[in-house]
Design a protein that fits this description.
homodimer; about 230 residues; alpha/beta; eight-stranded mixed beta sheet; 11 strands; globular
Chain lengths: ~230, ~230
């Protein structure tokens, strides 16, 4: 499992809705994907289902740790509860790698969803604090899981807002984002702007409930095709 | 100046770019607008300019206090620095009124813009704390001032995300928003989601710098015309 290490993508939390959806879309676009889960068998079952759905795409399942160890790119697609603990447990496997965080620190009460206070500022920055040698990029916060999992859903009109402090890593994630949606990825700026991108999902969930839809984000004022980090 | 009190709109900070732009668009749509400034003469001059630009629309100028006293709807369009102090100084004039906050608590350093920490959670909630009898609604955070001020700029493809805890007030602001942009306003949810809407502007400014544009927000997954708070 080390031959394609640099291009293989592990999805930690790969049996959750967001992780499954992103894994499915990445595999469908030709990437080799390893779904991770606390329970390896659950991940293997999910991988088999998605692989069949994606026409025999390369998706396997493993524990979160084994998945992270086997891949050069690790996508964190877990709930925020237990996030720090999980990232700490994977620190060695994440060291030196490209880590993509789509973690949304949200809570819910009788008034609906809201952004949680994160001492590091955001989940993405928390991961970067725990694994300083990893290159953390924030992305994919706003894509609705049921749409990711729907083979017919056209996501090309949604923008994937990508934040990070390393240009090359950001460009790589922007290319992956274009594979996921078939549309546009935008360089949103520094990693710390994950503080804005992550809890914006609370607004989308609130809108979804009010308008009975699955909303997403698009920015106005930009050319349709913007794939590179601008100079 | 009390005849049209309930429908007259005061713009506190009405000589700043956002305040001027919103005042211009509201007046052009037929609303009676009073621009407020610390310096009454500055507000009067700005009002005369905008009135001419808007074809003789009803725009006058006054001190922030006189503007707020003379209007039933007060739009706060001030920088966050000094916000609490200003709102406190206007508390009597704002009492019992509809207060619309488009205040964005942002700071800038060598890495660009970022959202500031606000102890009340957001500027909108801060205003609501200071003037508990006011009905505070958050809106208009994401419209670029130069586009608001450009008579030719079409803003109908941008969404105005409106948050608040009082449905009737929110509907009223959504109707004003439709007058400002000619497009769609969306009920984004509770007032506390201003914590997400306000600093999202940091992302837009970051994108503007990177892509040399004036970006705005649109949500995907919603019908083109949504003007009412949904049931």
């Amino acid at each position: 499992m080390t031959d394609n290490l640099s291009t293989r993508i592990a999805v930690v939390g790969g049996t959750g809705p967001q992780g499954r959806g992103l894994g499915y879309r990445l595999a469908r676009a030709g990437h080799e994907v390893v779904l991770g889960s606390r329970d390896a068998q659950r991940a293997i079952t999910a991988a088999e289902e998605l692989s069949a759905q994606a026409g025999g795409a390369r998706i396997t399942g493993a524990t979160n740790l084994a998945a992270a160890e086997s891949a050069g790119i690790v996508l964190l697609a877990v709930p925020y509860d237990g996030h720090a603990q999980l990232v700490t447990s994977l620190a060695q496997a994440l060291a030196g790698k490209l880590v993509i965080s789509c973690v949304n620190p949200l809570s819910f009460d009788r008034f609906g969803p809201y952004g949680r206070t994160v001492s590091a500022g955001s989940a993405a920055e928390e991961a970067a604090e725990i694994v300083p040698s990893a290159t953390v990029v924030g992305a994919f916060h706003h894509l609705a899981a049921p749409l990711l999992l729907d083979p017919e859903a056209d996501l090309s009109h949604e923008d994937v807002l990508v934040c990070g402090d390393a240009t090359a890593a950001k460009e790589r994630v922007m290319a992956l984002a274009a594979d996921v949606t078939g549309g546009r990825a935008l360089d949103a700026g520094r990693l710390r702007l994950a503080r804005q991108l992550e809890p914006l999902t609370a607004v989308l969930i609130s809108v979804n409930k009010r308008y009975r839809t699955r909303s997403g984000v698009a920015l106005t004022g930009l050319a349709p095709a913007v794939g590179k980090v601008p100079a």
